[in-house]
Amino acid sequence: MNPPHLIVGLGNPGPEYENTRHNAGFWFVDRLADELRIALAPQAKFFGKAGRAGELWLLQPGTFMNRSGQAVAALANFYKISPAEILVIHDELDLPPGGIRLKQGGGNGGHNGLKDIQAKLGTPDFWRLRLGIGHPRTLNLAQQVVDFVLHPPRKEELPDIEHAIARCLLAWPRIAAGDFAGAQQQLHGKAV
Question: Where is this site: Discriminates between blocked and unblocked aminoacyl-tRNA (predicted)?
Fold first, then answer.
């Protein structure tokens, strides 16, 4: 397996969205950037905030979620990064808060960010790191999905999501080496 050359955290720009569930991908990339000492800065030609260490790029699209593919395709095409070398981190309704799944390809599950990335890349064959935020129905909430993802996690959910991000950071050396199978084993096992 090729190591990833582009790590994309999905979210919505602006302070009003900063702490919302939909920005879980941004949260991960912020933490990874801190850990790797990569400064993220606005880069107009990539439609977002980006930073680089060697051949590794980190990206937070500056577009709204449903236009995420514009930023991903701009950077990937400019540096000739193949879809198999892209890892997209995003919030996942179909996993409980704190759930994690790492996989390549597949559908978009109605996630507008993934849908746009697939359209702009012309393929679903990029890697995804899915961070569980739960679903309003399984959490016994009356909220509509769009309202749910655009609100902060409840205080009892946030520690689980933060713990999942920490577990993903522990798996980063395997991901960075292209050992996706080893990272899957580490992440999909029982939480510690």
Answer: 12
Catalytic: which of 5, 22, 90, 111? 22
The residue-averaged pLDDT of 71-88 equals 97
What residues does each domain of the chain span? 6-179
12 annotated binding-site participant:
no
Taking a C-beta distance cutoff of 8 angstroms, is the pair 59, 9 a contact? Answer: yes
> Please, are residues 97 and 157 in contact by the beta-carbon 8 Å criterion?
yes
Say if residues 112 and 43 touch (Cβ distance below 8 Å): no
Identify the band that residue 19 occupies on the pLDDT scale cut at 50, 70 and 90: very high
Please confirm, yes or no, whether 22 is among the known catalytic residues: yes
Mean local confidence (pLDDT), 113-127: 96
CATH architecture of the domain formed by 6-179: 3-Layer(aba) Sandwich (3.40)
